[in-house]
Structures are given as C-alpha cells and as structure tokens.
Specification:
Layout lengths: L4 H13 L4 H5 L5 H8 L3 E6 L9 H17 L5 H8 L4 E8 L2 E11 L4 E9 L8 H16 L3 E6 L4 H6 L10 H4 L10 E6 L6 H29 L3 H44 L19 H4 L6 H9 L6 H18 L5 H19 L6
Parallel strand pairs: 4-5
Antiparallel strand pairs: 1-2, 2-3, 3-4, 5-6
Helix pairs in contact: 1-9, 4-5, 10-12, 10-14, 13-14
Amino acid sequence: MDVSEETLRQVLKSMKESKLSLDALENSARDEAARTEEAKGIIQFHIVANSLTKPISKQCLLWLVGLQNVFSHQLPRMPKEYIARLVFDPKHRTLALIKDNKVIGGICFRLFPSQGFSEIVFCAVTSNEQVKGYGTHLMNHLKDYHVRLGIHHFLTYADEYAIGYFKKQGFTIDIKLPKASYLGYIKDYEGATLMGCQLDSSIVYTLFSSVMRKQKEIIRKLIDMKQQELLRQNPNLALRCNQSSANSDANSQGSGDRKSKSRDDDKLYYHLKTVLNQVKNHPSAWPFIKPVEVSEAPDYYDHIKNPMDLKTMSDRLKNRHYSNKRIFVADMNRIFTNCRTYNAMDTEYYKCANVLERFFVNKMKEAGLWDK
C-alpha cells in the first residue's frame, strides 16, 4: 500500500515513544542480547594474529593462548597440536570474543584474497557462554570484516555437530564460488561437509536482524492503522475483526511457547553435547567408545540385555533423542552399571567405569545439570 511521509513519521514517532513490548523481546533475534552487551562494553571483538616480522603485544599473545584453550576444549576431536599450530600460524587470523578480558570464543580463519574467499578452520564459544547469541554475533562481525576487505565468500568443512550452526549463519552445501577458485587451496577433512556462504556488500550484518525487526514493527503498525481506518468506514466489520484477533492472539501465544521451548531444547542440546564430548575425550573412556563386540566377549549379550555405549549416545544426541537430562543420565549410568555387572571388581574395565562415572558427575554439576 502507498504510505505518505506524514503517516510514516507518525509511525516512527509512536515507536520511539513506546517501549518494546514483551512479545517483541521474546521473539527478538538470537544476537539481540549479544549486540546490547557489546554496546554496553560487556563483550568486545578483536582480530588477533601472530607475526614473525613485527612485535606482538603481551595482550595479543594472551588472547592467542586463550583462543587455543577454547578451541581445544570445545573441539576435543581436533588434535591439540594441530589447533596450536594454526592459531599461532602467521597466515591465520582469529576474531576473538572477549568478556571480562578473557577469551570466551572465536573464529580462526585464513584469507585467500587473490581467490576471493576465506577458509574458516575453527569456530567455538566456551560451553558456559553458549545459547546467548554470541556465536551468531561473532559470525556477523566476521562477515562485516570481510565485506570491508572486499572478500565475499566463506568456505568451511563442518562436522556433524557444526552443520546446524553454520546453516543458521547462512551457509549451504551449494557452493557459489567456482571450484577452480578454491581447489588445492583448502584441506579436505574426512567425514566433514564442505559448506559455503556468499556475502552481500550492501548488508551490515551486525545490524541486519535489528533493521529487520524494526521494519517488521513498522509494517505491523501500518497494518494496524489501515485496519482502524477500515473499521471506522465499515462498523459491521468490527465483530468479525475481534473474532479474528482473538484467534490470532491464541495462535501467537502458541507460537511464543514453541519458540521458548525451542530455545530451551537448544540450550540443553549444547550442554549435553559438551559433557558427552568431555566424557568421550577422557583417558578412561576407551572401553565404552563403541558397542561391545561379540568376538571380544562372546557371552556379553547373554548377561547384558540393555547395552549402551558412547557412540550410541552420540547418535541419539544428534537425532535429538534426549528431550530431557534424565534420559541422558539414565543412558550414561547404564554404561557404568553394565560394565560393573559384567566385569569383576579387580579388572581395568571396572576401574575405568568408576573413574569415568566420577568425571561425568563432576562435569554435569559444572554444567548445572545435576540434581542429586
């Protein structure tokens, strides 16, 4: 519909005078809170890199060490030596997320300016700071940084746990960059999926969701004004509009509940994923990594009717089987109970179960997921 300048001024004035509704806050973008924290100086973003040709500040070195620790902790399947080598490699840069002068996340990348792309090699936020929109805001800062450099493509190899995050950030398996531009420049990772993201130089990504929210609010107010005008011209429409509004409110409430539940589910998923990766990476986890093979213990399944292992738990987590922490704890406890049922107390297996169980309980407590 055509909108006069005067009408638009009235809408903008009413938006400025009124506070953001609770419903708008509930359904705001994932990075809204992170953007607010940055504006208040609670979090900061810095590009850091090592150098062989010029002095590096002590602060920069401390942040590089902090980034190495975050990546090593959050990406346990990556060799620590490999992470350290790339983080401190002068050819790589890292966008560091800083809170209370400590590194809580980052994205390590390598620029290929002549080829028109950057490769993202590591991306992580420390577990106790996840599900706060930091990951989205971190990626948006990286996008703006590359747009300023005139680089408009990202490439990355994502494992099964990272694919969901990258999809939310606009990555897809449909690579827009010609294959000749990156073939031979990036390393192929076995078991990972190549994903790409094309950047638009007309977008300020750190403000994008805020702009979209304001535009939606303007459109909603314009629609309200138009509806009020129609009601004044056609009073008989009032009853039907009221009935429609009641149905819309009910649907809106249901939508809000679903979004709230989705955020809770995501938070639980990331906490459980972190704990499970820590357990799998523990030195005493080796007997429980995969299902027991009959060739190694021929009578195992005669004694153990409900087997469980860490690989099965990983598959269940990936498929969102763990709708609550109790199911997750029950599966983990079954691993330890089965082990102690089948093996004698003086065996290495029995001792590993005891050690790993204590470690698991401690990690669940650290994550705030332990009720006992």
